[in-house]
Amino acid sequence: MDNVHDMGGMQAFGPINPEPETEEPVFHAEWESRVFAMTLLSGFLRQWTNDMARHARESQNPVTYLRNTYYENWLAGLETLWVGSGQVTPEELAKGISSGKSDIQAIDAEKALVSVKGAGGPVDPEAPVNAGLKVGDRVRVKTFHPMGHTRAPRYLRGREGVIDRIHGRHIYPDTHTVENVEDYPLYSVRFEGAELWGPDGNKRSAVYADLWEPYLEQP
Asked: Whole-prediction pTM value?
């Protein structure tokens, strides 16, 4: 989806003032840790995938998305997923009280967290790569405007680069749902600064982007 979350190459959003890494807290308020925990544990309901969760956050009104803090966007996405999957009703969210009518499932939090720590969320299936492209091939990112989630940034679409590395096969985020899991070769593609930013770009700069094979075509 082409929405305000895809900010690569955009201007006029003001300076970035990151906190020193040694001083920045993991969470800036207790409620943020609760949102993080709820998001992680709700994934064990097996009603959506990480890519569906990203799309839920990205589908907000652009003004709301920009106004929200990081974890406010997480919470907005989680509420969308809860209601959409029937785990929680809009009325329950509005009142903050369970009516007892939602078909929500119990989750063993301790067991779930041990599982995540031990295995993570692998997205690289054990399968032959069968890459259609090779290192050194010149490619162009297709120009397209999907309605769903995608990992192909707008500022790269229509631009040409060179395959620098093949990462193997990885789950394709654009079509990844609970019922549908497709995987394609994933490439690291090098784009020269002048190709992306024009004559004003730094000629000594380059951007490396990880892109799935369906995003690419040969010029």
From this structure: 0.84
| Cα torsion angle, 59, 63, 69, 75, sign | negative
pLDDT tens readout for residues 13-60: 888 888 888 888 999 999 999 999 999 888 888 899 999 999 999 999
DSSP 3-state of 217? strand
Whether the Cβ atoms of residue 190 and residue 177 lie closer than 8 Å to each other: no
124 in any annotated domain: no
Question: Cα–Cα distance between 71 and 25 in angstroms, integer?
Answer: 14
- Quick one: pLDDT band at residue 104, thresholds 50, 70, 90? low
Q: Say yes or no: 169 and 90 in one domain.
A: no
Q: Which residues pair with 138 in a beta bridge?
A: 162
Residue bearing tokens 């799309």: 55
Give exposure, 157-178, as e/b (b: 16+ Cβ within 10 Å).
Answer: bebbbbbeebeebbbbbbbbee
SS3 state at 81: helix
Q: Please tell me the total number of residues recorded for the chain in this structure.
A: 219
The verdict on residue 129 lying in a domain is no
